[in-house]
Design goal:
Number of helices: 2
Distance between the termini: 17 Å
Number of domains: 1
Structural class: alpha+beta
CATH superfamily: Lrp/AsnC effector binding domain/regulation of amino acid metabolism (RAM) domain
Number of strands: 4
Radius of gyration: 18 Å
Shape: elongated
Helix content: 10-25%
Mean pLDDT: 86
CATH topology: Alpha-Beta Plaits
Low-confidence stretches: 87-91
Strand content: over 45%
CATH class: Alpha Beta
């Protein structure tokens, strides 16, 4: 029997963008696998979450979003990591 660790990360963010660009930037965020916009304000704030198997996966998505140069800032709000250990039976066949 072996153990395998499976992680699941979810993080939430608030982005500040020009108010007239929130719709287009929300669509951009939603195009990334694991990212989802949950709300926008008239002042240009965008609330979204990112889900990935690793913390690095979340960082890579945020980096790609930030590279658009359309955001004034992207601030993390919350990050949770769930770690499940799974026992896997290994059967040897002769």
């Amino acid at each position: 029997m072996t153990k395998t660790n499976q992680e699941y990360h979810v993080a939430s963010f608030v982005a500040q963008a020009p108010p007239n660009h929130t719709s287009a930037l929300s669509e951009l965020i939603n195009q990334f696998n694991g990212a989802e916009v949950h709300g926008c304000s008239e002042e240009g704030k965008i609330v979204f979450t990112v889900e990935a198997d690793t913390q690095k996966g979340i960082a890579q998505i945020i980096e790609k979003i930030h590279l658009t140069d359309e955001f004034f800032s992207i601030s993390p709000v919350y990050h949770q990591c769930l770690n499940e250990t799974e026992h896997v039976e290994i059967t040897q066949v002769n």
